[in-house]
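== Item description ==
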Amino acid sequence: MRLVVLVDNTVFSKGLVAEHGLSLYGEYEGRRFLFDLGQSRDAFLKNAAVIGLEDVGSVDFVVLSHSHYDHTGGLLGLVGSLGKRTFLYASSRISRPKYRDAKGPDYYIGLPVELENRLCDVFTLDLSFRERRVGPGIWVIPSAPDYGYPLSLKSHLLNEDGKRDEFEDEVYLCLEDKEGLIVISGCSHRGVLNIIYHVRMVTGIDRVKAVIGGLHIRSFEEGLEVGRHMNEMGVDSVYPMHCTRPAAVCGIMSAFKGRCEVVGCGGEIVL
């Protein structure tokens, strides 16, 4: 499995653009995919071209982890660069409006409104609230339940009813490897520990080779707790990105016995 970071909050390579968001290009068992698309229309496309991935518009499938603008904004650019009709995997609730009350209760932060009713025109949609295998060794798993581990829900992130968003539209991409599961998450609003517990139950695979993506934790203490529990859960490695604050990464590194590596725009993960 190969992953290339196209969009992240940090950048480690010259010529690339960072922004608050996440987008990953992946290759797995002969299939190519995009996981999330960043905030702006074309940052992920420009970075892909600089890296040398000029044909990202011809991927086999796209996964959207949830509908927030910093993960779906690039849809506007992808639509214009698609080389073929492509599968889009997401939750059946992906088009529900999202708001942020820190900038006023009606500050919209969801799916690009220009595409709200056009996704079916350019993608073969697979929108479901159920876990499913979408190919050999490839799982799309929705919204982890609360298993008693900390959630990463914020009072200023609101759903269409103006209430705290429970992120029931969140999905995770899981890839089977002979050494365990590779778990990819956009923001882990449902709590990364709940997510790990859940995907192990759904797939029946206990060992987790890697956890990759945004963990949505801020403090050193949160990082310590995540690192300690990942040790107990048999996680081999973690690649925190995007919404994982530096203090939290330091906490993970202090407690986690496996490999913890920070990867920004242009970074590559080969497992």
